[in-house]
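Work Package 4 report. The design task specified in the project plan requires that, given a folded chain encoded as structure tokens, an amino acid be chosen for each position. We show below one input record used in the internal validation round.
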């Protein structure tokens, strides 16, 4: 709340909010999904999905000239990725929240997800077998490589630009094309 008060005071309005927050207890990011505890399920959904709703409640009033909300998701929201487990279920909730928020916040504000290919970050290294995910994506995606951070940034900038004025409620894949592959 304090953060948004400071933004309002300093800038008067807000054009873009990036949601780039996720968490699940480490022990829930290995082995099977069946073993997920209630505590891990609640924590991952609270931090990784509900946070988008809570942030939008505070950001929307500041988007007085229209605005864009962009959240970071992953393919594990729609397909089973080994070890991603409860985080995949939380990402599914995040993507669904994006659609409901887009419907509520229109007509002047957009809410979208970037579904990013795997990227070597501190959080990602907490997922068991993450290096395998990187290798698999590079090997099987049409572009035969992993995505670069600046490519994700450029997509976020595009979503906040006039060029994306007619886009909202979408999941945009920035994954070197991995999502289209069936085999
Ligand atoms: N790295 C990947 O392969 C990848 C792929 C697709 C999507 N994503 C998504 O991108 C986003 C950023 O992740 P990242 O991989 O850059 O890792 P990261 O560690 O840089 O970012 C995760 C952030 O979440 C914050 N966070 C965690 N728990 C929090 C809490 N309780 N309250 C407030 N903040 C909290 C951390 O402080 C950190 O800044 C996440 O939503 C992640 O799921 C990552």
């Amino acid at each position: 709340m304090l953060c948004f008060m400071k933004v309002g005071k300093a800038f008067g309005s807000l054009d873009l909010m990036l949601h780039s927050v996720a968490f699940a207890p480490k022990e829930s990011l290995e082995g099977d999904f069946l073993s997920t505890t209630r505590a891990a399920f609640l924590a991952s959904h609270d931090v990784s999905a509900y946070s988008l709703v809570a942030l939008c409640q505070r950001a929307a009033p500041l988007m007085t000239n229209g605005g864009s909300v962009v959240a970071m998701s992953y393919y594990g929201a729609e397909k089973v990725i080994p070890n991603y487990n409860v985080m995949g279920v939380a990402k599914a909730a995040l993507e669904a929240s994006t659609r409901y928020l887009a419907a509520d916040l229109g007509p002047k504000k957009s809410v979208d997800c970037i579904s990013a290919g795997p990227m070597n970050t501190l959080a990602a290294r907490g997922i068991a077998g993450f290096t395998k995910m990187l290798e698999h994506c590079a090997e099987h995606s049409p572009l035969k490589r992993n995505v670069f951070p600046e490519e994700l940034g450029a997509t976020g900038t595009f979503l906040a630009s006039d060029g994306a004025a007619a886009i909202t409620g979408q999941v945009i894949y920035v994954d070197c094309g991995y999502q289209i592959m069936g085999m």
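The domain at 28-180 is CATH 3.40.50.720 (Rossmann fold). Validation will be extended to a larger panel in the next phase.
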